[in-house]
Write a structure and sequence with these properties.
Number of strands: 8
Helix content: 40-55%
Distance between the termini: 17 Å
Largest sheet: 8 strands, mixed
Structural class: alpha/beta
CATH topology: Rossmann fold
Number of helices: 11
Length: 303
């Protein structure tokens, strides 16, 4: 069995489950970081291989800190951190346990804090899950929590933009620190997951019709997880690469390298979002070039 250890958030269903299953099949020990422990245990039973289930609610900074504390105590070396979990909140505006807009809290701020708290133990890669919905959006730094004129689809797209900005900025800072850790990004195109019908449930009967149409217009989870697996396991990957489907509008198809939006790739946006995330979460890391300890000489790495 491989000695590699991977932490996969949201690993009890959808893309996270498919990713965890494939990693376990390859001999990796997979930590299923899930909000619903019972669902996580059922997922672990289905996955087989070497797995463990840990509770993690990304919409709660207390939960993130608790998970990170237990994880670092039990696993002083993590080869792969996959920030996969996500939330789609398209109905009325909702907030997290910490008062953050829920799309942003779950998709980006929770993963920012988790990455910062675990980074000293990561020796291989951090994979951030983006979405094609990030491309038309821009971040409003005067209203990151979307307290004015809330629109669920825009809030979700902005949250995924924030994820993308974070993954790219993380790559910049890791390079500046001389760290061997890679920050890589992926998006699944249009994929049928458990989030597909939930994205429209707030519309009632019309939403159920749209959900059925959406199921017909999307690719399978097995196909959708391929960009994430490429980012996590391909031996020729370099920091900052971004993978997605090569089909029309990056909605489906075989894996290829794709481009983020101009907003996502803007260093000024990256620096501003990083500072905001540090202030909001209270987790500060990579603020100086010497902030990250290089991996131990000879430590196994996922490359």
């Amino acid at each position: 069995m491989s000695s590699d250890i991977a932490v996969v958030t949201g690993a009890n269903s959808g893309l996270g489950l498919a990713t965890a299953t494939e990693l376990a099949r390859r001999g990796t020990h997979v930590v299923l970081a899930v909000r619903n422990v019972a669902a996580g245990r059922e997922a672990a039973r289905r996955i087989g291989g070497s797995t463990e289930v840990r509770e993690l609610d990304l919409a709660s900074l207390a939960s993130v800190r608790s998970f990170a504390s237990m994880s670092t105590a039990d696993h002083p070396r993590i080869d792969l951190l996959i920030n996969n979990a996500g939330a789609v909140v398209l109905g009325p505006r909702r907030t997290s346990a910490d008062g953050f807009e829920l799309n942003l809290a779950t998709n980006m701020l929770g993963h920012f804090a988790l990455t910062g708290l675990l980074l000293g133990t990561v020796t291989g890669r951090v994979v951030s899950l983006s979405s094609i919905t990030h491309k038309p959006e821009r971040l409003d730094f005067d209203d990151l929590m979307f307290e004015r004129g809330y629109r669920g689809t825009t809030a979700y797209g902005r949250a995924k933009l924030a994820c993308t900005v974070f993954g790219i900025e993380l790559d910049r800072r890791l390079r500046a620190a001389g760290s061997p850790v890679l920050s890589v990004l992926a998006h699944p195109g249009m994929t049928r997951t458990n989030l597909t019908p939930r994205a429209w449930e707030h519309l009632g009967a019309p939403g159920r019709v749209l959900a059925r149409i959406g199921l017909l217009a999307t690719q399978s989870v097995e196909q959708g997880t391929q960009p994430q697996l490429r980012a996590a396991t391909a031996p020729d990957v370099t920091g900052g690469q971004f993978f997605g489907p090569r089909g029309p509008f990056e909605m489906f198809g075989r894996v290829t390298e794709v481009r983020p939006s101009r907003e996502a790739a803007d260093p000024a946006v990256g620096a501003r979002l990083w500072a905001a995330a540090e202030e909001l979460t209270g987790v500060r890391f990579l603020s100086r070039p010497d902030s990250v300890r290089p991996a131990r000489p000879g430590a196994p790495r996922t490359r």
